[in-house]
Amino acid sequence: MTGPGDVPPELLDRLRPICLGLPEAYEEPAWVGVRWRVRKRTFAHVLTVDPDHQMSYARAVGTDEPVCVLTFRSPVDEIQALVAGGHPFFKPGWGADVLGLVVDDGFDWDELAELLTESYCRLAPRKLVARVAPPASPGGSSR
Questions:
Q1: Rounded CA gap, 137 and 40, in Å?
Q2: What is the rounded distance in angstroms from the CA atom of residue 91 to the CA atom of residue 105?
Q3: CA distance 100 to 13
Q4: In angstroms, rounded to a whole number, what is the distance separating the alpha carbons of residues 32 and 52?
Q5: Cβ of 12: how many Cβ atoms within 10 Å?
Q6: pLDDT in tens, 101-141
Q7: What is the value of pTM for the model shown?
Q8: What is the C-alpha separation between 65 and 56, in angstroms, rounded?
Q9: Residue 21 class from Cβ within 10 Å (0-12 exposed, 13-18 middle, 19+ buried)?
Q10: How far, in Å, CA of 99 to CA of 86, rounded?
């Protein structure tokens, strides 16, 4: 079984400011990889999928090679639209509002910040959501 060290440090360095910049968000080791939570509810989870150990993730991503993935919450209609567009999005086999993303070099980090903020807002109490500033996006939403 892999552990929190399986996620490339440079990826964690990019995710931490996004996730930990949200009110009362905190980071902790997950059963594998790292997760970010608010009030004991996970709004983001990153791990490197090793098909020998995380078979359900590997099947969902459609890979037999190690790959770094991030799962988070999103509205069902948005999940359908993003998954229909294909890579890097995928639908894990659990949770109607869970979306997966293969984290690779070509991903738009501004869009990811929006998606993670939205995931946080789906799970956080209203009083914390009220303190969240929407991510800045020049020219409007990228979605």
A1: 29
A2: 20
A3: 20
A4: 13
A5: 16
A6: 988 877 889 999 999 999 999 999 999 999 997 655 444 44
A7: 0.82
A8: 13
A9: middle
A10: 12
Confidence of residue 1 (pLDDT cuts 50, 70, 90): very low
CA 3 to centroid of chain Cα atoms: 17
Cα(27)–Cα(35) distance, integer angstroms: 6
The mean pLDDT of the chain is 83
Residue 53, judged by CB atoms within 10 A of its CB (0-12, 13-18, 19+), counts as middle
Backbone angles phi, psi at 76, to 5 degrees: -55, -45
Residues 6 or more apart whose Cβ sits within 8 Å of residue 122: 43, 73, 74, 75, 97
Question: What single string gives the DSSP state of each residue in the chain?
Answer: ---GGGS-HHHHHHHHHHHHTSTT-EEEE-SSSEEEEETTEEEEEEEEE-TTT-HHHHHHHT-SS-EEEEEEE--HHHHHHHHHT-TTEE--SS-TTEEEEE--TT--HHHHHHHHHHHHHHHS-HHHHTTPPPPP-TTS---
CA–CA dist 122, 59 (Å, integer): 26
